[in-house]
Description:
Blueprint: E1 2-9, E2 12-17, E3 22-27, H1 29-34, E4 42-46, E5 53-58, E6 64-66, E7 69-71, E8 75-81, H2 89-101, E9 105-111, H3 117-130, E10 133-136, H4 145-152, E11 156-160, H5 167-175, E12 201-205, E13 208-212, H6 257-263, H7 269-286
Helix pairs in contact: 2-7
Amino acid sequence: MKGIILKNQNGYFTILGDNQQLSLCRSRGSLKRKSDILVGDWVDYDINQGTQALITHVYSRKNMLSRPPVANIDQLILVAAIEKPTLNYFLLDKMIISAGLLGMRPIICINKCDLNMPLARTVSEEYQKIGYDTVYTSTYEDIGLSNLEMLIKGMVSVFSGSSGVGKSSLLNHFLGEEYFSSGEVSSHTEKGKNTTKHAELVMLKKGIFLMDTPGYSFLELSIDIQERIDYLFPEFVPFLNQCKFHDCRHMTEPSCRIRNAVEDGTILERRYESYLRIVKNQEKNKD
């Protein structure tokens, strides 16, 4: 029988089968030695081998995250609070690029919009103009939640964001229960306690899976970038073949169309600054 891994608790895997029934399984010793089995993996399992159901095969993955270790994600819901904690544009941009490198669709969710609606609208519109799917939300005032639900239909979605931005509150809204614990934000550090202890897929409706993850403030770009990342900034793409030098990195090179576009306001300066920081950080990691 085929199914998807919803949870791993000390080597016992909860699997949702094609028949929509839950089973608790272990993996065969030979299979366990070959590879790790991750939440989100599609597997074959045998429920007729004695009293213990066994996983017999793990299907190839289309993608995976390393922290938390999960697989086969359709899209990343990148949650950022407009205030409390203060919106960190660089962290948000870094996660957007991470999604692109991992082959996952990024959806930008500006949460707690009731704290500063004009700014929430502005930020959402800026990213939408670039080409990203965006939504601004508030669980406190029930704003934007139906729009977010439309974006997660038929998808395996991972919610990610710094602790305290409201990921768990959003998930609890959709699940209709206090499934994930929520953390308060410290008034001194503007950081929340990371209350999610393990990765777990939860089925909202048939074919719609939600997951909470540890805060991305602790997640570095773990992919070894051997190629340019400028193409992962959609607003850069129209100008990439117009620079004077074909290998232009858009840093200090003369006659750079990307830098010209920043100067004339076509490209947001803060987005360009995020690009520079990501490239410089990767160069440091190579040294």
